[in-house]
Amino acid sequence: MRRKAKYVIVAYIFIISDSPGVLNGQNLYTLLCAGRSSKHVSVKKQRRNGEKMIFKCRNCGGNVVYSPEKKSMYCPHCEGIESQQKMEGTSEETCANCGAPLHAGTFSSSARCEHCGNYIVFDKKVQGEYEPNLILPFKIGKEGAKEILKREFKKRAFTPASFLSEATLDKMEGAYVPFWLYDYIAQYHYAGEGTKVRSWRSGDKEYTETSYYRVIRELNIDFDKIPVDASIAMDDGIMDLMEPYEYKDLEGFQDKYISGFLSEFFNEDAEKLEPRAKRKAQSDAEALLQESLSGYSTLRAQHKQLNMDRLGFFYALLPVWVYTYSYRDQKFPFYVNGQTGKVIGKTPMSMQKLAGYSATVFAITFLIVNFLFMICKL
Ligand SMILES: [Zn+2]
Ligand SMILES: [Zn+2]
Fold first, then answer.
1. Which one of 104, 172, 203, 255 has the minimum C-beta count within 10 Å?
2. How much distance in Å is there from the Cα of 82 to the middle of ligand 1?
3. Percent of the chain beyond pLDDT 90?
4. Contact predicate 64/87, CB 8 Å
């Protein structure tokens, strides 16, 4: 029995006794075993004391960014590969390239200068206590994300024409969202009474047989990296919908990956956000238990106990393309998972297209009614 998991869950279910033995003596099976996917990467850390820095090209002085397509650092000006060198700046308020004021958010760890378009990394927000353990580098670049959005929404009848225009799509930004990833082991104990009811008819009599079973389950569940976003600006529900991420691509954090993208450091700490991870684990544990309890006509729980122990947590940056479309004073945010390409967002309805459509329906209806009327007259 295999269930699609949003993250890795390994569950061993021990059916201690289902008397009488209705499960063919099978007393241990693996409900889901996807294997652990954590990857341990050691990265040499370079400590710097500057407030911010920029990756400059050794060949031409342009801003070197991480290219998901090339899987390397890339200079878009001279097409140099891995030609970057770090240049320090002192103040967080101004661009390290042109000196223009930077309008970065409270939780920004990197920003794009509105004046020159260069990407600045705020050193202190990715070092020390703010240094992520892990990062999932973007797999899908801007062009790829644009194509995904175009494909997804081309067929939607009432999307305004400007929604997919190159000019508006170009405003799309790649952002690394801070996440806490929690590991737990859990034991779920269940004891109850189950019934199975069989009915049959013989002659003019109807028989019903009710068999009673003592049902006991012991689930040992291993949760690997349950994700909870640590960004206040990002809607929790939307971020949950962005799952699943493939954790096999997680790497040790390196600041070069965030050059070319916006990023935030965690807005809230792991302890504060842990209840959300626990709720996800509890709901998954309940689903696993219910799957293991199928086949009874009725079930009455006598004892249920879920014990969870946190093994640890990681601070990780996960990639999301963000596209905010404004239509009639309303904002419509769209998100594309920067690793898998999954799209979340609701398209606006063009009133103009909708009006055109209603008018067409009305015109056709009118013609048909008219036509019927004419036939009747004949
Ligand atoms: Zn260059
Ligand atoms: Zn600048």
1. 203
2. 10
3. 61
4. no
Question: Mean pLDDT throughout 1-21?
Answer: 52
How many Cβ atoms sit within 10 Å of the Cβ of residue 258? 29
**H helical segments located in 9-95:** none
CA of 87 to the centre of ligand 1 (A): 14
Burial (Cβ within 10 Å: 0-12, 13-18, ≥19) of residue 225: buried
The rounded Å distance from CA 74 to ligand 1 centre is: 8
CA–centroid distance, 31 to ligand 2, in Å, is 54
Residue 305 is predicted with a pLDDT of 96
* pLDDT number for residue 111: 94
Find tokens 């990062």 and name the residue.
Answer: 135
Could you tell me the distance, in angstroms and rounded to a whole number, from the CA of residue 140 to the centre of ligand 1? 22
Identify the nearest ligand to the CA of 63 by its number.
1
- The answer to whether the CB of 131 falls within 8 A of the CB of 317 is no
Q: Which residues contact 251 (CB under 8 A, 6 or more apart)?
A: 39, 41, 134, 135, 136, 137, 257
**Residue 307 bridge partners (DSSP):** 187
DSSP structural state of residue 290: H
Total-model pTM: 0.79
Q: How remote is the CA of residue 45 from the centroid of ligand 1, in Å? A: 25
